[in-house]
Sequence to fold (305 residues):
Amino acid sequence: MSRENDDMADSEERARHWRYAELPGVDLLRARYVEKRFVRHTHEQFVIAAITDGVEVFHHGGADQYVGPGALALVNPDTPHTGQAGGPEGWRYGAVYPSPELVAEIAAETTVIRGTPGFRSPVLEDPYAAGLVHQVLRATDEGNALAADTLLRVAVTRLLRLNGGTLPRRAVRTAGARMAARARAVLEERMTGPPTLERLAADLGTSPFALLRAFRETYGMPPHAWLTDARVRRARRLLDAGTTPAEAAAAVGFTDQPHLNRHFGRIVGVPPGAYQRERKNVQDRAARSPYGPRHGTTDSTSRYM
Fold:
């Protein structure tokens, strides 16, 4: 049995969200969840999640999607989705989150896709590609930068060739979309002290329900859910920069650190403290070695939740 299978063999919920310095711009995750429910949220990166055991169900594109062993859940950047177990046994998976820039680079070099590349279907049955994802994670565990980078590029190329296409351009054409974009700009600017829906609508010269409808249609979620998602995104950047969880909570508008913990876990999958420790481990290892981390991501029980 492989090491990741050993780590996730019992019924306890565990997750590790980390980065490997030799794969810049790529987040990594290995997890086993039973009762975890991811609220509707988005990612700035692509999601490439390979299921090992159990079934995950996630709402995407107006329908529930089911993905089981040997299949992959594929989500494009800024696409709202959820996530939870499809059965009482939960699910176990490994995931890589490559940046849009990296995927575009790979697509330009290895495919005929022109424009902004993305995945056509959110679920793909492909045990070989799923195995590549787990090999990427294993290579980072072993500090094998050459293998990790190579396998990631091979996996992304295969997925784009099997399930890739050009994403439609998001043009703000309708009056509702323009109004939603203005509301989003206000929420970004006033993240720590956002207005009520009624006040926001009045400032934009519309009604609360008209604004709510336009925002849902444009961004796939109501303004309050979008704001929580945006706060967690900003908190992640602050944690990456070394801000403490308590300071990050206050900086993005959460009432306190437990408030951040609750929403962070429901979107990222791990608590902010565990998330930040992994980032710090990578930075510390890179600083100690002029050649980068050689054994940068060996597993340890303390690094799980």
Confidence is low (pLDDT under 50) at residues 1-9, 290-305.
